[in-house]
Structure to design on (93 residues):
């Protein structure tokens, strides 16, 4: 995933995944206007899978630009259960 912020235009692009051979075409018609902060455009491929989000004007008000955090939450962490208790089958070898 990549996030780019353009200070000059106060806009941001969030690419959730790379456009590869499995990303066929683009449907960029999901323009979600926000009168107070500009607009947001959702990018989907022909299969309808979301792969990008663009925020035009006002990105600095929508995003916490001082801190970006990524955490992978282990299976069962929200329920207190792990592995088989959480209904997860072991990977077959």
């Amino acid at each position: 995933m990549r996030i780019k912020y353009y200070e000059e235009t106060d806009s941001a692009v969030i690419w959730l995944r790379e456009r590869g051979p499995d990303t066929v075409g683009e449907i960029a018609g999901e323009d979600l206007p926000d009168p107070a902060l500009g607009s947001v455009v959702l990018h989907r491929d022909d299969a309808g899978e979301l792969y990008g989000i663009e925020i035009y004007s006002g990105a600095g008000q929508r995003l916490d630009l001082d801190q970006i955090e990524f955490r992978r939450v282990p299976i069962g962490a929200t329920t207190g259960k792990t592995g088989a208790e959480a209904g997860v089958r072991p990977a077959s070898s």
Q: What stands out?
A: The chain is about 5% helix and 35% strand. Residues 11 and 57 are 5 Å apart (CA to CA). The two ends are 29 Å apart (CA to CA).
